Queue: 4 jobs
Job 1
Amino acid sequence: MFINFFFALKSYGVPVSLHEWITLHHALARNLNDCNLTKFYYVARAILVKNEIYYDKYDMAFLDTFKDIETTDEMLEKILEGLKKVKELHLSEEEKKQIEELDLDQILRNFEEQLKQEHYKNHVGGNKAIGTGGRSTQGAWGYNPAGIRIGQGESRHKRAVQIAEKRSFRNYSNDVTLDTRQMRVALAHLRSLLPIGPEEKLNLDATIDATCKNAGELEFIWESKEKKAAKVILMMDVGGSMTPYARLVERLFSAASSQISRFKHYYFHNCIYQDLWTDIERRESISTQEFLKSEDNDYKLILIGDAEMAPSELTWVNGAIDYWYHNDTPGLAWLQRLRDKFKDSIWMNPLPRRSWGYVQTARMIGGIFPMFELTLDGLDEGVKFLMKGKGKFFN
């Protein structure tokens, strides 16, 4: 199959050399693709394609070669074929209370059993199968106090503990200029952080004046110049319940990227685990562990998210909202590691402060990071806290 891939690339006009092909085999021998077809796609593209103009031809050759291999996406497509949109199920509060709320382990066992038995074909109503309009712990357009959502595409009750569906998000724009002036003013405080040693500078006007007063004998006047710099890392929650705040975060991203020279940004969904995503579509990632090892600890860390999720996403192994994503370490532990690494760190929340005390996960995250509202006032308070280490915040 791999030799067929080589000839397919050649036939589509991708200039692959024998040296690059051997390099790819070395990468496979070291299992850099982690026996995963999607990761193999990116590893092979990084090694074999020398110019972005060949990406489209590479994609066609890849599809032509590997189209018959079943992937997670194809499994999802099979499930979604059996989940036809039906009228949404609406239950009264009394009826909702009669449905038992299960823990994450039981929910996952239910889902895996239904997958194994292929109980996802034309099921409407009911309380077991992966279906629509029912009371089971998995499916779409129904109701369960805690379950796995698949095929619905949007949140209705904000109660799903995991989501087994393919999602894509539009990248936050970094060129939004409307209404960013005040945010720039608030973020400009960061430019006065982190003084970097004294530097000698010739004061030309004072030198001329002193030389004139000294009867023409040259006298240099030097002054100390203190360079200042800000180092900021911005981590943003994307998708799900954060969707309504996309424009607000767009503005913050625009303002931050234009104000700060040493600026890095990453994405996550609900909570941070072993990967940080470098693009909003969550296709490219870096290891959180390697990130913690390699970055300087004098960066100012700003996290943005509503902190509203199932408690299992913070406290359980494999509790991540995305069913296909497995985390060996609970999210709360990763958040604590970030806090230990970056002493100057804050969490910005787009939800109003008055609601945080009623959200269990907001209280848990507020116990790790000082939390501020994602408003102009809250942003200003947060920036001042990063500068001085004190201020009014939620914890």
Job 2
Amino acid sequence: MNFAGFLALIAAVAVLIVLGLFFYFIKVWVRALMSEAPVSLFSLVGMKLRGVNPTLIVDARIRAVKAGIPLGTDVLEAHFLAGGNVIKVVQALIAADKANIELIFQRAAAIDLAGRDVQDAVRTSVNPKVIDCPDPNKGTQMLDAVAKDGIRLLVKARVTVRANLDRLVGGATEDTIIARVGQGIVSAIGSQPTYKDVLENPDKISRKVLDSGLDAQTAFEIVSIDIADVSVAGCADVANVGAKLETERADADKKMRQAEAEGRRAMAIAAEQEMRAKVQEAQARVVDAQAQVPLAIAEAFRSGNLGVMDFYRMQNILADSAMRESISKSDESKGPQIKS
């Protein structure tokens, strides 16, 4: 192949590439024009050069224009280059417009770029969703609360929420709603005098929790809080819950009284031991005083205040007293004598 043939081949390939690009852009351009959402050929070429998919941008613009939402290719292209999902944003704008919800492109784009599903947000705003409290996927099936009378209740609630598009960016998620509602229910039950009030009027608990403004700084607006299930802990299969609770209360009171009696008994034993210790202490003082008597007698002998005869008379008196005590104890041991 000579040089002229080589140039002709290159020119033919170049022409084919140009014709392919031309027909590609013409196809997209014609589709936009026929859909009354015209886009210039230079814009399409510029998109291609900037690494943007022209077909995606044109399709998104056609959907928006057909829904009565005028969007230029520049904002759609900018959102695409920012890493957003252009089709989802446009679909969310169309859904919000049909539902008479005020949502501008900038807010929808911000929600999408924040990692939130903007379509799901609009859907939740139109059709509120129901959240279980507590979340069964976290392993906890029921909330555990205790009334003032000490009775433990198991509660399950369902929270109906609507997405708040104004607070969706930066607002707390569903986990915060579940945590706040759970805390509110436990607190509301804890303020009730008896468990019977909760079982009789569970809506009182839900109203009290709903009036607490638990959706502040969250991405949702709480529509309603409904107590789906409430039961006394440990009495799921008992027909007469009141009788069972009264029986358990009586047993608890009995054990408490027994514990109090045992405490008083222990205190009495301690007091008795203390008195015995005091008696032993007094006896020790008596023995100590008795030990001082011989010393005093010896001192009296040395000082001349006590004579030998005086000492003998004292000894006789002591012996006489000891004999009388011995006779008295002997008579007591024999008991009363019956004369015939």
Job 3
Amino acid sequence: MSHRTAFRVGDIRFGRRELRDLAAAWVALAIAFTFFLNPYLLRALQYGQLATGALVEAFALSLITVGSGFLLHELAHKVAAIRFGQVAEFRADYGMLGLAIVAALAGFLFAAPGAVHHRGYITKRENGIIALAGPLTNVALAVVFVPLLFAGGFVGRVGTIGVVINVLLAGFNMIPFGPLDGKTVLTWNKLVFAAVFVPTAGLGILLVFVGLF
């Protein structure tokens, strides 16, 4: 991990490479979700009828909602890890980011932008809290987006996508499997895991069901 500081907020430091990785992940995910959430744009592009205004608006929506949801999720892990005395930095997975864009163009959803890597002595409880910080941040973001649901036009669409994406991110990341946050939280505290997983996963499934039918 690099220790060269390019930007600092209080005790939270960011190196040049880390800032570059965060920006790349933010933009790449926004591009992927622009086409995944708006398949008509891809069809318009194929027939040479893509309107620049529609593309810019769709990209801005993804940048504000999906991009911020992923970005702040990872930054929450970093902040929590540093609070527990860890050395922590975000590293983008450029191969996975490229795959996310290709998958979106093919009509599939795939997003694994990278992860916050941290090292140093840590307890099981502290590790669980670091893992939990990401999904809880998505829950908080979903709440922040709720008031925008009642606005019209672009702002209303920001609210809708912001709520849905962040609820899905929270629920998905709390699945107790593989490298997902849920497995670490479950290992630490089963009651905490259930208190977060059940409502987020349940609401996420409900939103998917409503969206499909």
Job 4
Amino acid sequence: MEELLIRAPHRAPESFRVRSLETDIVEEISAEEIKAVFYVNSFDGDAHHESLNFHSRAPIVHGIWMRLQFLDGEVMEGIVYNSIRYLIDPGFFLLPTDPESNNRLVYVRKSWLSDHRVLGMRKL
């Protein structure tokens, strides 16, 4: 999982290219228009999945352990790479820590957050 964080871009994306599964049409969406981009294991997901918080079984990955709350009420936890980019960019990459989550990596726009808290530091 740490490999996903290491391979994450080192600057904020200005737009995202999204391909429709039904039509195969590619659309470019401005990063300013999105809440987050979820890189998932499966498009099926699990509507009944209840998120666990502060996971003891989560892999140990170096970074800042955060709890985020979006403006729409969604809450998630994950690891943020500890760098100046986290502070100055309009968004950041979050590695979810819920071992049962369908999300592999999430790009979060700060403007969509109502709250975010540091829960701790994780060191290798």
